[in-house]
Every structure is written in structure tokens, then in C-alpha cells.
Amino acid sequence: PGYSGVAVWSRHPMEVVGTGMDDADPEGRILRVRVQGVQLASVYLPSGSSSPERQEAKEAWMARFRAFTDSLRGNDEPLLLGGDLNIAHTEQDIHNVLAYVRSLSK
């Protein structure tokens, strides 16, 4: 419904379980489906690399997402989470480390 959008492709029948988080997902960043008794969540986390403000928004989104996923773990159904998490754990995960560091210090 918005800027981002995610999808799930399956050779097996699936049922849409939900979209977004409970409060809102205007950018279309979460899609949950059920395939053969497993709940799949396709997620596109916001990028924080364009500005310090965007990084703050990403961190706030991640805190809400953590609470959201914790609420999903309460049932007995397996949950598989995948997608573009926009996380760079090491320098190897970043194409141009120097440019990335400079963008964070603006």
C-alpha cells in the first residue's frame, strides 16, 4: 500500500495472516502468511543510512518491530522471519565503508 512493499512466493497454498504492525504500516513493510502450518513474515526494515534523522526513525521502528515479533511468539505456531533487514554487522556488509561512515556523521 505504500513506498516499500514486500511479497511472498510459494508453490504451496497460503493464507494471508496480516499486513503491517498493529498500529500502522503505511510503507508496506510487513506481510505475514501461513503456509503448511508455518507463519512466514516477509519484512523490509527501513534504512538509516541517509541521515541521522532517518537512523533515529529506523531505531524507533525496530523497537516497535521487536515488541510486535515478541507478541507473535506467544502461540504454538512456528514463525519464520525473513526479508531485507538493512543491517550491516561488519565492514564486509557495506559496499563503501568510508562513504557510509561519512553519511552517519552529517
Strand content: 15-25%
Helical fraction equals 25-40%
Query: What's the β-strand tally?
Result: 4
What pattern of helices and strands is seen along the backbone?
EEEHEH
What is the number of domains? Answer: 1
Structural class: alpha+beta
Biggest β-sheet description: 4 strands, mixed
Strand order of the largest sheet: 1-2-3-4
Summarize model confidence as the mean pLDDT: 82
Q: Per the principal axes of the C-alpha atoms, what is the gross shape? A: elongated
Report Rg.
16 Å
Give the low-pLDDT segments: none
The end-to-end distance, rounded to whole angstroms, is 31 Å
Keywords for this structure?
single chain, 106 residues, alpha+beta, four-stranded mixed sheet, 2 helices, elongated
Please characterize this protein's 3D structure.
This protein has 106 residues and is an alpha+beta fold. It has one domain (15-104). Helices cover 27% and strands 23% of the residues. The chain contains two helices and four strands; from the N terminus they run βββαβα. The protein has helices spanning 52-72, 97-104; strands spanning 15-19, 30-35, 38-44, 79-84. It has a four-stranded mixed beta sheet, with no helix packed on it. It is elongated and about 45 Å long. The chain starts with 14 loop residues before the first strand and ends with a helix. The relative contact order is 0.17. The mean pLDDT is 82.
